[in-house]
Design goal:
This protein is 76% helix and 0% strand. By secondary structure, it is mostly helical. The protein has one domain.
């Protein structure tokens, strides 16, 4: 899926700067702590700023739920815990909540957002935002360089 999206990204006729910006915003969204809202956020930003949807979705799909969601979540938590000076281990109560989600139980959400906010969600949110900024800042120049080189190679072939 990512490979096909990357091929479509390379075929866009938008200026490389605009395509790289849309892709890096997608990467920012991919690493953001707003799990479950990534596609909605990407769509809204693409529509509001008239970015190419293929470019922004390709960046967003860096956080593929089947391959990269767990590692990104773990690194987000670890970065946040490091910044906050907390242990890298999730406390047992928070870990139990994450291992056994009861999505339709109000008590579960109360425990997660009220009791475990400081121990689980805050480090994850802070780490996710830090990773979002860093990864987006790295992805823009790399994508721009790659798109410019690709465009130059395509122009040399014609």
């Amino acid at each position: 899926m990512f490979r096909a999206a990357l091929r479509r990204l390379l075929a866009l006729d938008d200026p490389p700067e605009r395509t790289a910006l849309a892709f890096s915003i997608g990467v920012f969204i991919a690493f953001s702590p707003f799990l479950g809202l990534h596609t909605i956020m990407a769509t809204l930003i693409a529509v509001i700023f008239r970015f190419n949807k293929v470019a922004i979705y390709t960046g967003t799909f860096v956080n593929n739920p089947f391959l990269t969601l767990v590692p990104i979540t773990i690194v987000s938590y670890a970065v946040g815990a490091l910044v906050l000076g907390r242990p890298m281990r999730i406390p047992p109560d928070g870990l139990e909540l994450l291992k056994h989600p009861r999505l339709l139980d109000g008590a579960y959400w109360h425990d997660l957002f009220i009791r475990s906010w400081n121990d689980v969600l805050l480090p994850f949110a802070i780490g996710g935002l830090i990773l979002s900024v860093v990864c987006a800042a790295i992805s823009y120049p790399l994508t721009l360089c790659f798109l410019r080189a690709r465009r130059a190679a395509r122009e040399n072939q014609t």
